[in-house]
Amino acid sequence: MLRNTVIAFFIHIFTGVIIWLSGNYFYDFVFNKYQSNAVIMNSYLLCVSIIGLTVYYILGRKLLRFQGSKLKSLLSVSLVSLIGFIIGLYLIIFTNDGWDWIMYILYNAALHPAMMVIANTKYALWLSILPSLFMWMGIVHKEKSNMLSQVQFFEEQL
């Protein structure tokens, strides 16, 4: 379980850095060309966030291990989202909107584009749940695939 938690943090950091760097690079291009078109800008930002969630899913599937049950697997990756949620909740309660939120944005860098679309801190807080959810879905899907391939193997042996 500890192994999954540590790897989940590395996945979270890696995905955040990749999305932050690549998303900002392409954002400048899109912004310079389509800044007056909110639909295109929001669509771009949501696509970048979907790519980030896909990376969470793929890396969760490739690097994380099933923990014997779906609940244990979810708990093994949930600390990533719990920390993000606590940071966001603290900021909602004790600070104003604005620069105070930079810590939350940096911690959840992979979902920063979606935060820009939402533009409401109370709703953006719930985005912090998505990294763990998508890593967990990757773990569960891998386990289902493994179980299916084992069943097919045994059927072929008969």
From TrEMBL:
The chain crosses the membrane at residues 7-27, 39-59, 71-93, 123-140. Keywords: Membrane, Transmembrane, Transmembrane helix. It comes from the Bacteria. This is DUF2306 domain-containing protein. It comes from Peribacillus deserti.
